[in-house]
Amino acid sequence: MIAAVLVLFLTHTALAVRTPTISWITKEQIVDIGSSVQLECSVQYSVDYPVLWIKKGSDETQDLPISSGPTLILREPRYSLRHDTGSSTYILQIKDLQESDGGEYLCQVLISRTNRVTATVNLLVRRPPYILDNSTRTVVVSDGDSVKLECYAGGVPTPSISWRRENNAILPTGGSIFKGNILMIPSVRKEDRGTYYCIADNGVSRGDRRNINVEVQFAPVVEATRPRVYQAMQYDMDLECHVEAYPPAAIVWIFRQESIVNNRDYRVSQFTTADEFTDTTLRVITIEQNQFGNYTCRATNKLGQSSATVTLIESMTPVCPPACGHLNFSSGVPLAPYVALMLLAALGVYVVRRQPVVL
């Protein structure tokens, strides 16, 4: 009898000193934004103690209590709680996950003010990368300036940043790819102008990209398409120059220190192929003797000036083009020799065809 009482006493004492334990908690969860997740926590010997789900705060936010026992504290429709009494498991479900839901969650048994049993599970909510507004959009610099292109991105996990140029052109830093948030060009050249791509990638979805336009202002560069051209008198001839400049240059043709304007002797035309490329043509109409000589094509913008010279030289026969098919009978000048030969050849063919066939 005494032995039975002793066993009963010891058993009651052992039960009384048993403290709650967390036998199992969900491992780290990595899920995509917008999806759902279940966090499970199994607790033993917790009948007399509150079991809480808490979202751990950061340096700027406090811990957020979510549930106590089988009851939700947080009134949030995306959250639900289920208590499996058979396994003493508390199941927290979160739907339509947002980036802010990511973080560390605590399953905690509150024994006293100073005594708590805690287990943690980390929730990583993956989000595709997105370029932030504090990234560079467009820069306008002058030839030789230092250029700083910046690109920052959000997303989970943290995206990596890389740089490329349009058509995989070589970057000023060398190579076709540069990794890092900041791309520095110590001394930009006009060849460095164009579109740069900031690419953010974190393995989620296809990533994000921003096109950054680098505009380099530079003094004009003028090139004569044909520095020496030949034409006969009374025929037209085109003098051509190619101009590269940004901002676009003011272009003039000069002959004998006088600017040329459109009149019966000259016609100036310009064709812009891009913001920085312009082709200009001076047509000398029905050339007279005093129109042979050196013509200057001059281009000017706020960064400087450049010019090229085209020399118009007299030839004995017309040059085609632009003389093809053009005869100026009103000038009183005899037909060009090659035209006369063509007429004689045609007449000879006609005579031969008219001769009788001799059998």
Question: How would you describe the overall organization of this protein?
Answer:
With 359 residues, the chain is mainly β. The strands form 5 sheets. Strands 11, 14, 15, 17, 18, 20, 23 and 24 form an 8-stranded mixed sheet that branches. Strands 2, 4, 5, 6, 9, 10 and 13 form a 7-stranded mixed sheet that branches. A 5-stranded mixed sheet has the order 19-26-25-21-22, with no helix packed on it. A hairpin with a 5-residue loop joins β9 and β10. 18% of the residues are buried.
List the helices and strands and how they pair.
Blueprint (H helix, E strand, L loop, with lengths): L1 H16 L3 E5 L3 E4 L4 E8 L6 E5 L8 E5 L2 E2 L6 E6 L4 E6 L8 E8 L5 E16 L6 E5 L4 E4 L2 E4 L3 E6 L12 E2 L2 E4 L8 E8 L6 E17 L3 E4 L5 E10 L3 E6 L2 E2 L6 E9 L2 E8 L8 E9 L2 E11 L22 H18 L5
Parallel strand pairs: 2-10, 11-18, 19-26
Antiparallel strand pairs: 1-3, 3-8, 4-5, 4-9, 5-6, 7-8, 9-10, 10-13, 12-16, 14-15, 14-17, 17-18, 18-20, 20-24, 21-22, 21-25, 23-24, 25-26
Q: Which keywords apply here?
A:
disordered N terminus, immunoglobulin domain, Immunoglobulin-like, 359 residues, 26 strands, 3 domains, mainly beta, rod-shaped, seven-stranded mixed sheet, transmembrane, Lachesin-like isoform X2, eight-stranded mixed sheet, 2 helices, disordered C terminus, 9% helix
> What is the count of helical runs?
2
* The CATH H-level homologous superfamily of the largest domain: Immunoglobulins
> N- to C-terminal separation?
159 Å
Mean pLDDT: 87
Question: Overall 3D geometry?
Answer: rod-shaped
CATH architecture annotation of the largest domain: Sandwich
Low-confidence stretches: 1-15, 327-359
Write the H/E string, N to C.
HEEEEEEEEEEEEEEEEEEEEEEEEEEH
| Helix content percent band | under 10%
Structural class: mainly beta
* Tally of structural domains: 3
CATH class of the largest domain: Mainly Beta
Protein name: Lachesin-like isoform X2
Subcellular location: Cell membrane
Keywords: Cell membrane, Disulfide bond, Glycoprotein, Immunoglobulin domain, Membrane, Repeat, Signal, Transmembrane, Transmembrane helix
